[in-house]
Amino acid sequence: MPEGKGPVGNGTRDPGLQPERTRLAWRRTTLACAVAASLAGRQTLASGIGPIPLLGLALTVLAWLTFLGLAHRRIRTLYVPRPPALSPRAAVVAVACVLAMAVFGSATLH
């Protein structure tokens, strides 16, 4: 299908489904990160609050909040008919937040 041509061929793109699926994917990922941060907090409280697990928990929450802000900003940009592509910088920050949550979350285990 040529660029900019919808299935009807009238030259306009149906903006309905793809941005909505992308918004939902960002929301699911944010929810998964929230669950991971919550489990890190639960593990920290269950195993006793020591300095290393507490630092790991604080950094996990910081990474989650950073990801939450990035995801919220991206979700808002998807409400236009032709949303811009995700910038490379934002993609790197998103990946860094997920990796940081994995590393810092493991610090809550001892």
Q: How does this model look, in words?
A:
The protein is mainly α. It has one domain. The chain is 70% helix and 0% strand. It contains 3 helices and no strands. The protein has helices at residues 17-46, 51-77, 88-107. The chain is elongated. The model has no long low-confidence stretch (mean pLDDT 82).
The helix-strand sequence is HHH
Provide the number of structural domains: 1
* Rounded radius of gyration (Å): 19 Å
β-strand percent reads under 5%
Q: What is the typical, i.e. mean, pLDDT?
A: 82
| Subunit organisation of the chains | single chain
- Low-confidence stretches at least 5 residues in length (pLDDT < 50)? none
Count of strand segments: 0
The share of residues in helices is: over 70%
Number of helices: 3
Give the topology, please.
Blueprint: H1 17-46, H2 51-77, H3 88-107
Helix pairs in contact: 1-2, 1-3, 2-3
Protein name: DUF202 domain-containing protein
Transmembrane segments: 52-70, 90-109
Domain DUF202: 14-76
Give a brief outline of the structure:
The chain is mainly α and 110 residues long. It has helices spanning 17-46, 51-77, 88-107.
Which short descriptors sum up this protein?
about 110 residues, mainly alpha, elongated
